[in-house]
Structure formats: structure tokens, C-alpha cells
Design a protein that fits this description.
binds magnesium ion, 5 strands, 282 residues, single chain, binds adenosine-5'-diphosphate
Length: 282
């Protein structure tokens, strides 16, 4: 039996560093010992090492994307009770979590409903699932992102700030309707919507239905133009349920709670039908 040729382990480590193959650097010793012991063909050893490097690379990438996504902690699909929001199809949500189709087209997802109905939870859970499936996501409270974009605008860097957001396949704008009515603030929001239109997706949560978005944008024509772009390719879930927390607290006390009377008018017609809006716009 011939003895395996000696190699310079230290030099191999350096070379693997140079090639940026940390998993192989970490594992080759154990794998090579096992291969020698079990008589693996050389090609099998090489393939096993390459597979581990790739798996480790994917894991690190997902970890980076999770850190950059700034998702609220602990909001997952597993902990989301779909039966509490019967108008939201679990199958449809699960299909959207694969990301194919809608994220490639820059389509949007809009979640409406009263406070406590699970909009933020569902948005975060979808974001998390998308990251796990290899997509890049940024979760932001709308008002925080608007502040950041305004700073960028003051520094004459709005365009590059918007371009930097392009790396995210999905931008979650939580509490869209909470933005204050200020010309400068809402115009960066409008520019963001225009910049991403048909290119990059957004997931928007809002307490107020479209019909009340006049209070977000100071100019009704701008409201209409923004809503038009957002809904052009959009899936809309109207989560008209009573606050989940209040409901579960009630259920603990006295059985199932009653559904809330909150309703959101239907989509774009709501804006179009709004007299003052239409008059100003026409
Ligand atoms: P919203 O953003 O619509 O105001 P949240 O997503 O913040 O509501 O929900 C309020 C709380 O109730 C959160 O702690 C959330 O995790 C929980 N919650 C709401 N809906 C559900 C649900 N369907 N299943 C599990 N937890 C829920
Ligand atoms: Mg919320």
C-alpha cells in the first residue's frame, strides 16, 4: 500500500483563504481523513467539499439579508393564525412567499385594516419567508424611511438613495397612512413610488383605505397618481377584523368576540369616486 503524498497543510490553509473558501478550509482535514479511511474516490471528496462551501455560502448570504431586512422579531407565518383573518387566503400568501412572478414584475401587495388586525405581523412574516427563499427585503416604518429620504434630498442625494433601495426586491412600508401631511415629506414618498413602479415591489400596510389617502398626500392629483401606480399591479388584502389582541383577550373572558364594523371601500374607484378629488383632478 502506498502512503498518501504529504501536503503542506499550512500552505493549503493560506491558499483556501486566498480563494475565499472558508468552509473547505475548515472541513478539508476531517473530510480527507474520512475519505482516506473509507477509500472515497478523489472526485467524491472534491464534490463533498464544494457542496459544503456552497451550502455555507447560502447560509451566510441569508444571514446577511436577514440582518439588513430589519424585520420586527418573532413575527413568522408559523405564529400567524390565518383563521383569524378568513379573508386572507393562506394558500395565496404561501404562494407569494416563493416570490416568483410578482417580485420579478415589481408588483405590489397592500394590506388594509384597522389597528391590531395583524397587518404588521403578516407583512413581517412574508418578508421573512422571502428572505429565506433568497430575496432581499427591507422593512421600514413609512415615517422613518420618509425621514431618511428627506435627509437625502436635503443633501441633494435623493436619487442615489432611491437607487440604493433598488437592491431590495421588496420594500415593506409599514403604516403608510401615518405619514404626516407635509409637502416635502409626501413628495419624497411619491418619488419613491414612482421610482419603483413596475420595477421593484412594495408591501404597504395602512389603517386608512384609499378613499382617505387625501390626508397623506397634500395634492389630490398626487394621491390619485400614487394610488394608480400602487394598485396597477397589486394584490390587496382587506383585513377587516377586530384587533387580534382584544379578540384573544375577549375570547379568554367570554368566548369568541364579535367582528368589527370597520370596512374599507373598494380600491381605486374609491378614490376616483371621491368628488372633491375628481373635480380637482379633471
Ligand atoms: P396591525 O399592524 O394590523 O396594527 P399587528 O400585526 O401589530 O397589527 O398585530 C397586533 C398583535 O397581535 C401583534 O402582537 C401580532 O403578532 C398579533 N396578531 C395579530 N393578528 C394575528 C394573527 N392572525 N395571528 C397571530 N397573531 C396575531
Ligand atoms: Mg401595524
Amino acid at each position: 500500500m502506498s502512503t498518501p503524498p504529504m501536503i503542506d497543510a499550512q500552505r493549503l490553509s493560506l491558499m483556501l483563504n486566498e480563494l475565499r473558501l472558508p468552509a473547505i478550509k475548515h472541513m478539508w482535514g476531517d473530510f480527507a481523513a474520512r475519505a482516506d479511511k473509507e477509500g472515497w474516490p478523489a472526485a467524491r471528496l472534491l464534490a463533498a467539499l464544494a457542496e459544503h462551501e456552497i451550502a455555507e455560502r447560502d447560509r451566510r448570504r441569508t444571514e446577511r439579508h436577514l440582518a439588513e431586512a430589519k424585520l420586527p422579531a418573532g413575527k413568522t407565518l408559523d405564529t400567524f393564525a390565518f383563521d383569524a383573518v378568513p379573508m386572507v387566503s393562506k394558500a395565496q400568501v404561501m404562494a407569494m412567499c416563493a416570490g416568483d412572478g410578482w417580485l420579478e414584475q415589481g408588483a405590489n401587495l397592500i394590506l388594509f385594516g384597522p389597528p391590531g388586525g395583524g397587518k404588521t405581523h403578516l407583512a413581517a412574516a412574508i418578508g421573512l419567508a422571502l428572505v429565506e427563499n433568497g430575496w432581499r427585503v427591507l422593512f421600514a416604518r413609512t415615517s422613518d424611511l420618509v425621514q431618511r429620504l428627506q435627509v437625502a434630498r436635503r443633501e441633494l442625494a435623493l436619487e442615489s438613495a432611491l437607487t440604493r433601495l433598488d437592491k431590495y426586491h421588496l420594500l415593506v412600508l409599514d403604516d403608510f397612512a401615518y405619514v404626516s401631511r407635509d409637502q416635502a415629506e409626501t413628495s419624497v414618498l411619491f418619488e419613491l413610488i414612482s421610482a419603483r413602479y413596475e420595477r421593484r415591489s412594495m408591501l404597504i400596510t395602512a389603517n386608512q383605505p384609499f378613499g382617505e389617502w387625501n390626508s397623506i398626500f397634500p395634492d389630490p392629483a398626487m394621491t390619485l397618481a400614487a394610488v394608480d401606480r400602487l394598485v396597477h399591479h397589486a394584490t390587496i388584502f382587506e383585513m377587516n377584523v377586530e384587533s387580534y389582541r382584544r379578540r384573544t383577550a375577549q375570547a379568554r373572558r367570554s368566548g369568541p368576540g364579535r367582528p368589527a364594523s370597520f370596512t374599507t371601500p373598494k380600491v381605486l374607484e374609491a378614490v376616483r369616486d371621491n368628488q372633491s378629488l375628481t373635480q380637482k383632478f379633471m
